[in-house]
Amino acid sequence: MRKKKGRCVNVGGCDIADEQTLLEIQTNEEFICPECKDELKPDGGGFNKNILFIPLGVILLLFIFFAITNIKTRRQPGHEPSPDEPTPPPEPSLDAPSYLPTVEVPQGELKLPDYLTRYARYLDPQKPVKIDRAFTIQAGEVTVGEFRVFFDTLNESEQKLVGLKWAQAGDTEKYDDDRPVENISWVNLNLPTTAQWIAACIKYEQLPPIINQTDNIPESKLRSKVDHLIGNLREWSSDTCKENWYRLLGENYMTAADPDIVGKENCAKSDQVWPGVGFRLVRIED
Length: 286
Fold this sequence. Notes:
single chain, 6 helices, four-stranded mixed sheet, 14 strands, alpha+beta
């Protein structure tokens, strides 16, 4: 009898999903995970089984890269550039793909709106979200092109450690530069907290999230000033679930439209690489 192959995507809530085990199910049996009973995702070529270890030096380089690309050019008071001085680069904007455009989120105390409770069922809807300091958050996830700028600064051995899963599928199919980068492990950068993510979702109420796409790839184009906070990719946060495990925010294009999965707390080990998981950065305002 023929068998169907699939994988459990209930990362953080199921050992089978955490181990990325490929399951074979008889065609006359229910296509669900034998451990958590969640619906399986049909295998489309397999998950990346390589574990990405980013050494401290690489992390520091990544931090420097994103810090520099987030600096806005300002003229000093009373200073006028001479004709010989180079023209300063433009302010970050959605039209400048070499920058990381951000939006502002003010400080304050916010109530979790009804539409968000579905996507964060692990939070107490009666407990307000408190933001002590205003911050900025990226309008979209870090893209392949933005990550490549950093990758090209690494030496050959460092590039081998990072690998190329983020840049291409297989040996030949390269991802477009504007595609959100995935297959990246947790990095010790200015990742958002859960509270900051919630505040951004409230400030910039999300369009219907992209969770299940027929072409099974993340959406690249931003549909509004800030987008894809809830759907498209699950995103790394700075909040720990347990030692070396970090909470993943939102849903992704591989998440099944199942009320038992959507909004459930998801965590992943910091040194693991997952398709459908990316990141965006925040910066605390001075």
